[in-house]
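Before going further, it is useful to explain how the protein records used in this thesis are read. An example of such a record is reproduced below.

***
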Amino acid sequence: MLLHRLCFTLVVSVNVLAQLVDPWNDVKTLLNEPQFNVDYFASDNKMLDSKRLQLSDAYSPEQQLKEYDEFWNEQNSTNSLQLKLYNDLQISAEKFNNAEALYKLANINLLGSYGLPQNKTLAVEYLMRFNEVTNYTNSTGLFEMAVIYSTGLLGTIPIDTPKSLVYYEKSALLGDIRAKQALAYRYLAGLNVPRDCDKALLLYREVADYIKNTYTPEEWNIFFPPLETYNIRVSDFEDGLIGSGLNTISASLTRTPSQKPDLSSIFYTQMNEGRIVLSFTSENMFADDDDQMIDELVDIYYTALDMYKGTYNKRRDPERARIALENVYMEYDDTTVLMENIQLYFYSKCIDLLGHLYLTGEGVPTADVATAEFYLKRSVEVLKPLTYIRSGAYRDLGLISQYAYNNITKAAQYYKYMTGMNDEDGNDFFQLSKISIAHPEMKLGDPFVLMQQAYSRGHVPSIYEFAKMLEDGFNNQHSCDDTAFLYKHFIEKNDHISAPQLKEAYVNLLLGKTEAAIWGYLQAGEQGWEPALVSTAYLLYRMSPLLDDEYVTSEERKQLSISYYSRAFNLHNTDAGVIAGNLYYNMGDYPRAITMYQSASLRYSSSALWNLGYMYEYGLGVEKDYYLAKRFYDEALEYDKNILLGVKLSLLKLQLKAWWSRINGYNTSSDDKNIDLFNSIPWYMQIITIFKNIINDNSRHSRTGSNADFHFGTYITTITEILGLTTEDLYGVAIVGLIFLFYILVRAIARRQGVQIRVNDQRLV
């Protein structure tokens, strides 16, 4: 770094002699160069298509500083646009006190933008100077400085909580909605400030009102647009925090590319009147025309749906979706009388989506109600043979009746017809609630309940409207905490407005820039967003897989990771509490690990209960107690039947240990003195002691009765209890054993008869 500063001083001296003009205009010209202005989400940019998350294996501040120095030592000053850009920025900042240049330098060193290296220490210096030059009137700079003081920028500077609160307050007063969220979260949770729900509610409402006003009345009241959200947990791309099938929290991923459904499932087989549909590629010579048509319709529909909604790696493209769907209509509409049920189903969905595009005006020059109505009614007509399936087109037909023709009665009929569908739209309930308020004589239902139904189905405007109902005491319902939570939930649904840095953080992850991604998630975590808290914690310190080397990171990062997991747990992410306990366990802090496991177990986490069983089994942070260990193992199985095998093996091990303790005359609870005494005597005395205990145990049993059958039954019962097995378990073991013996017998017969058994072109015998 010292060498770089000396080089910069020489460059500055030469440039100052050559020019006395601020080079900021040159910087703006450079930033328009293609290499500095890449649109990763453009339809013709394929860079992200094959990208997968690239997470760093370790973090070392020394290594980062070394990479920074190596980068500048290797630069060729005669042809490097990067070097010119950085030097011009430094001249503009140092010699002309240009605030924009200072902020750009801070961001470059925070994010490693434009292919330049990161340097967090320099980033903090530049951001401090930026706030000084702007006289502490820039809300964005103040918010980012507040985040740095709150987190210490992961060990770059000491954490200063009082300063962070001051900066959050200043930024919020200047209107920064992220700072308002950070303060609201702290007041709601009582984090570093006295808990004050009323203040939290006031701040959350201000942000929610601001977001609501960004939408047009048509978008808000009629058809709310799909949102390109990046509010995700990074861990969900890797089977969640605990593992596939073990997480208690549903995944946050909602915009991954659509998966083609299993057409051979019961649902589609019944729809197709019992004929099983086999999926083939278009090149497969064995596919008949019907199956090929089904494959084509399914592929086109889900491709168009992804274009309409957008995915994490591609922005929305309604125009391409509309063109693809119009081609479907022109190619297949004349053949609907020959289609089977499953073909009609997917063709109807294609035409339904096409009608929706014409209604909203997306992908077309202007909205066209007449054309939309034509396609929507055609979608309904096509599905008439399938009387048990309702077309989603009824919802849009209701909107046309209500807002184009002012036929409220007809619209309500369409909406009521749609409420029987188990979908995730909720707009039908939203419209019914508003009609019910305006026309109570229609007796459509309680508007409060209808709005609640819309909110529970994820309809975004309904979240805000339901919060307003609660706040206004609608139906005598009022709760400060519930209302604040609803406004918070609404805000987080609109992350493109309330946390735009999340999109950039995701791109940085795909590009392998983990440190830059952490900065984005760190900010949203400070705003109180549970997914961002988990993502930050996950990126800061990850649990290493079995047999892998331990993840190397700094102590500050470990502590912040645990803190963020704990905050996420307080925001109802049970799995985060389990992981916080695991991190404490890895650090040898067993009492805190026990506390986290106990808290998570109260939320019915099978993983937490299993971990508690393990802690009691080995006496880690608590007194060893086999009885309590067994109880926790049993409870874990009660809450999650998928861990049957693991629990049974744990119980088997536990019961064998308990049996061994009884044989040696120990209690099943902790008796460390007896164990130490036993281990201290010679090995031959240990064997004699064991046999003495066995003889004494048998003598006690022989005095209880003389009926041999009774003793045998008691013995069998004791064995099954020791092994933690039920009668059904024994039957299962016997059946598996018989199947195994039958398999061996078949192999032996096949060998004698000269038969070759093949599976997947591999000869078995």
In short: Residues 727-753 form the longest helix (27 residues). The first strand starts at residue 758 and ends at 759.
